[in-house]
Backbone:
């Protein structure tokens, strides 16, 4: 069975179903989501955050996107993640001439709700000038005079780091933007090869890192046992992504609910997780899971790891050499 929706196989008991039904209609008066420090930024981030992909980057889904973003903030989400690349027309060059759908949708809500969230975006250009042009575009589309967090997008290979840290590289843009208060904090992101990301955080004191984490992680190029401890040692804010692996972690004879993977990652030493949502209902379900979160026992974590060991290629499709195919395109909008 292919292209399985992560909601088609959600199996909850009667009590869980009732909780979701109640949660779908409430915001005020409900218990708040737990908060954690976002590294040394001083921001207390809720443990579930909204990702800028899925519906938010999809053509023709404007109204649904606005509803998801507003509902997320209503429910206490205080970290929004987007990127210049999300929903951008790849046929338009240079990059900054194409307005990304995700930033455009988020920006519409930011006109009136900017002060309610910690706003993060990314540059996928590796040069100083190109990144500054993308930042100018991001600020315009997001209707703000600054980003709380600006990140290097989807670092995959050593050559990219060499360009970023070389003469006229993107790191110069990041430092300039921070010194001129166009951005407050700087981050790095990736899900392809933890070894490359480790080199990145060793070369520069980034404030945050966005990395791939899910119950299949340990089976192939693990982030959890390599870069996660280093990021924690450096006091970085850690944001987990790829929790549902774009729904490929869900199988009728495997993991069938987002609850397990979310609890698994939130039991790790992370600040928050970001998940792109397809519907308001899906968003509300994720918020309810976050509100009810308790650390997962080690035996339960091991059980999920064992389950995913039978379909590692699917659950880790975004990593180097997953399924025997090495992805090399850095202009892949299906990045996070």
Residues:
């Amino acid at each position: 069975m292919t292209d399985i929706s992560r909601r088609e196989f959600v199996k909850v008991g009667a009590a869980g179903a009732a909780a979701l039904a109640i949660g779908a209609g409430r915001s005020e008066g409900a218990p708040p989501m737990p908060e954690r420090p976002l590294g040394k930024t001083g921001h207390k981030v809720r443990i579930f955050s909204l990702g800028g992909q899925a519906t938010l980057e999809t053509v023709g889904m404007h109204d649904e996107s606005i509803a998801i973003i507003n509902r997320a903030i209503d429910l206490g989400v205080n970290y929004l993640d987007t990127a210049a690349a999300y929903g951008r027309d790849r046929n338009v060059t240079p990059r900054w001439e194409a307005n990304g759908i995700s930033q455009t949708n988020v920006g519409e809500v930011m006109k009136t709700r900017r002060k309610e969230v910690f706003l993060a975006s990314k540059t996928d250009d590796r040069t100083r000038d190109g990144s500054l042009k993308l930042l100018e575009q991001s600020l315009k589309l997001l209707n703000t005079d600054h980003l709380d967090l600006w990140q290097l997008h989807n670092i995959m290979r050593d050559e990219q780091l060499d360009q970023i840290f070389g003469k006229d590289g993107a790191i110069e843009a990041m430092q300039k933007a921070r010194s001129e208060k166009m951005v407050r904090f700087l981050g790095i992101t990736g899900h392809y090869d933890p070894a490359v990301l480790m080199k990145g955080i060793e070369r520069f004191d980034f404030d945050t890192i966005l990395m791939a984490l899910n119950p299949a992680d340990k089976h192939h190029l693990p982030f959890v046992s390599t870069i996660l401890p280093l990021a924690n040692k450096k006091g970085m804010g850690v944001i987990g992504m790829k929790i549902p692996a774009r729904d490929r972690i869900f199988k009728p004879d495997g993991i069938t609910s987002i609850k397990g993977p979310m609890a698994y990652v939130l039991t790790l030493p992370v600040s928050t997780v970001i998940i792109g949502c397809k519907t308001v209902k899906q968003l509300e379900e994720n918020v309810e899971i976050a509100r009810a979160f308790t650390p997962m026992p080690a035996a339960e974590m091991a059980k999920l790891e064992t389950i995913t060991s039978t379909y590692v290629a699917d659950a880790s499709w975004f990593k180097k050499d997953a399924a025997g195919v090495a992805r090399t395109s850095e202009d892949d909008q299906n990045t996070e």
Remarks:
- The beta strands are 35-37, 44-46, 48-50, 79-81, 118-123, 147-152, 183-190, 208-212, 237-241, 272-275.
